[in-house]
Design brief:
With 356 residues, this protein is α/β, with parallel strands linked by helices. Helix content is 26%, strand content 24%. The protein folds into 2 domains: 202 residues, Medium-chain alcohol dehydrogenases, catalytic domain (Quinone Oxidoreductase, Chain A, domain 1, Alpha-Beta Complex); 134 residues, NAD(P)-binding Rossmann-like Domain (Rossmann fold, 3-Layer(aba) Sandwich). Belongs to the zinc-containing alcohol dehydrogenase family.
């Protein structure tokens, strides 16, 4: 089969790789139907995630069809259409029992495309399949569902829930990429008074308006003045960092009001300065987090009911074997206008079943 293999800093290629096989009775093998590229994959290529070793197939978001299941798998069976979660859960360790699947100590957590081969391939082995894949409702197209593997749970859990968005709040989201846009959509579930999106790309700010931002600001043009004007100088109740850069995190800490919340969602590869000399007396709560995906079943039900506009974030589609082209388009989002790119899906040809 083919997979997109990481070779080191800035290097990866679509190439022949061994077919995956069931190694544990809790494994499932999934034929990938649709897959997407995450900003975290770009961080890997930039060297921000050093745990990823050369030779690893990248990717942690996909939908597909079960083609083989280990003897202990009970919740899915061959021919089931499933969503592959970006987080793998053993279901038994201390953290999984608390619903903190991202911190799994039983061979799970974020492992796909990180510690083991991932989803940007024709086939993928998913450990702990009972809790790590979700049967897909027939009403949810695969291209739309793949956005529920990571970006919507991440934005909702690490941004909206950690930030404790409440009715009447002023919410600022720094970064209008896919994560920031999904945060706009899911923050609306809690009826804030206003949502302000901050970015440097006009196309992304326009997408933010389309998805529900009440105001937008160019990050280079004193967004703090807009926030101050709209809040009588108090600052925002909740500020979410959805970029993963030191300057954006530091901006978030300047935009939050006393007693407010800063929810960091972005993946950081460099240190950021925490200005405690300004923050120590302001009762500010700062949260970080790796998504647990405990909200995925709820988000799937909402998508099936037409309550989540996941498809509106998809700007480009490609056949599965156009991975290198898709990465180039996604990495140059400022030029291409890319938000979320999807490879495979119902509009493209099926891959062949590997020989036994």
């Amino acid at each position: 089969m083919k997979g997109f293999v990481f070779h080191g800093l800035g290097q990866a290629s679509w190439q022949d790789v061994p077919d995956p096989a069931v190694k544990e009775p809790t494994d499932a093998i999934v034929k990938v139907g649709a897959v997407t590229i995450c900003g975290t994959d770009l961080h890997i290529l930039k060297g921000d995630v050093p745990e990823v070793h050369p030779g690893t197939v990248l990717g942690h978001e996909a939908v597909g069809e079960i083609v083989e299941a280990g003897g202990d798998v009970r919740t899915v069976r061959p021919e089931d259409r499933v969503l592959i979660s970006c987080i793998t859960s053993c279901g038994r360790c201390r953290f999984c029992r608390d619903g903190s699947y991202g911190q799994c100590r039983g061979g799970g957590g974020w492992i796909l495309g990180h510690l083991i081969d991932g989803t940007q391939a024709e086939y993928v082995r998913v450990p702990h399949a009972d809790l790590s894949v979700h049967p897909l409702p027939a009403t949810v197209p695969g291209e739309d569902a793949v956005l529920l593997a990571d970006i919507f749970p991440t934005s909702y859990e690490v941004g909206v829930l950690n930030g404790r968005v409440r009715p009447g709040d002023t919410v600022v989201i720094v970064g209008a990429g896919p994560i920031g846009l999904a945060a706009i959509v899911t923050a609306h579930l809690f009826a804030p008074e206003r949502i302000i999106s901050v970015d440097m790309a006009p196309a992304r700010l326009e997408a933010a308006r389309r998805l529900g931002a009440d105001a937008v600001a160019d990050a280079r043009e004193a967004p703090g003045e807009l926030v101050a004007d709209l809040t009588d100088g108090l600052g925002a109740d909740v500020v979410m960092e959805a970029v993963g850069a030191p300057e954006s995190f530091e901006l978030c800490t300047r935009l939050v009001r006393p007693g407010g919340h800063v929810a960091n969602i972005g993946v950081h590869g460099k240190p950021a300065t925490l200005h405690l000399e300004d923050l120590w007396a302001k009762n500010v709560t700062i949260t970080t987090g790796l998504v647990d995906t405990s909200s995925t079943p709820t988000l799937l039900r909402m998508a099936a009911a037409g309550r989540l506009p996941t498809g509106q974030l998809i700007t480009h589609t490609f056949p599965l074997d156009h991975m290198e082209e898709a990465y180039e388009v996604f990495a140059k989002a400022a030029e291409t206008g890319a938000l979320k790119v999807v490879l495979g899906g119902e509009q493209h040809a099926e891959v062949a079943v590997p020989a036994a």
